């Protein structure tokens, strides 16, 4: 019987977003396969996390494409982005906390995402929509943090899933909107 690697990854992602410290045995059970089969596909936790990183990056890139970041105002683009990225938010929250992804300087795929997202903030600053005293790099990091936090709060039942986009965007833009000086 052939094992669907994508299905195994998605099962692992679903488990690890709820229980980041789950063992490889637990991951195998969640995927409906044996530990040996899991090990044939992913030599260990590091290999599994790296594969989940690739999945997370791919899902983020697809969300960025669907969000049409160049259309409309920067605020509208940001709302679309958060709405499109929400299905991957749990996986991103897991990856956000995985220190091994950042230890060896292998953050190039994330740098591509950062650049695309920061462009929205630059556009908003240039149009006068966003305040200019916060760097686009910081606003990008804040967005990641809010997406991860809202994913955790949603999983824990503290935030209704239907409120995800509103909660993230309103908190971020409430701090990013340019204020009129008195």
Q: Say what oligomer this is.
A: single chain
Largest sheet: none
**Helical element count?**
10
Mean pLDDT: 89
Indicate the structural class: mainly alpha
Q: First CA to last CA: what distance?
A: 70 Å
Helix percent reads 55-70%
Unreliable sequence segments? none
Strand content: under 5%
Q: Would you count the extended β strands for me?
A: 0
Radius of gyration using CA atoms only: 18 Å
- What's the helix-strand series? HHHHHHHHHH
- Based on Cα principal axes, name the global outline: elongated
Topology:
Layout: H1 5-18, H2 24-31, H3 35-41, H4 45-66, H5 74-85, H6 89-96, H7 100-103, H8 108-126, H9 136-155, H10 164-176
Helix pairs in contact: 1-2, 1-4, 1-6, 4-5, 4-8, 5-8, 5-10, 6-9, 8-9, 9-10
Question: How would you describe this protein?
Answer:
This protein is an all-alpha fold. The protein has helices at residues 5-18, 24-31, 35-41, 45-66, 74-85, 89-96, 100-103, 108-126, 136-155, 164-176. α4 (45-66) packs across α5, α5 (74-85) runs antiparallel to α8 and α9 packs antiparallel against α10 (164-176). The longest helix has 22 residues, at 45-66.
